[in-house]
Amino acid sequence: MASRALHVVSADAHSRNATEESILAAARDALREEPYDRITIDGIARRAFVSRTAVYFYFPNKRAVIDRLIQLAFSDMYAAASPYLEGDDDPRRDIHLALARTVAAVTEHATVLLLAARLSGQMDRLPPEWEPYIMRLRNAAARRIRRDQQRGLAPDDIPAGTSSRALLAMVESQIVREVVIGGGDAQASVRVLAELWWRAVYSHANPRLEG
Known about the structure:
This protein is mainly α. The chain has helices at 18-33, 41-48, 52-58, 62-85, 91-108, 110-120, 131-150, 160-181, 186-202.
């Protein structure tokens, strides 16, 4: 899995048609170039080279466009983390690759995520309405930890769900505060987070001999 490219592909990229894709791309560009309060449906339509009616066909208002962009951002983050969440190779390598890809995905979507956090008044932590997306990541991480516990690659003295919640909270805090808001070194954060995750889950394992 280490050979996988770092290119991040949205899990539902193929479910969007060209018109919706152009509207979302136009909204992303607008967010990078002007304040949210100045963005209008008319402006998004002009950027996307579609009619105002076409935009309203897919989205009832401007906030619905942002909500869709947030959904896609989390979809990209899940896809980015899949080498670890869905993998079964060397855990240390999978953790590092997944975190590197996830930080890249968060950085790519930083404008949307920061806007959403500001609109929710939760700049220091993820807004509560993001909980379903966080739960998907948390449950997948717990399943991976549990699989590795069953394989003897990780000790099972701490429940997988408990480890998953604590470690994802650590990753969330580091990425949001240090990388997205603080503009810190993303590669350094990946190295630190990957090492902390591996030590917390795997460093005291006593692998069983299989076969």
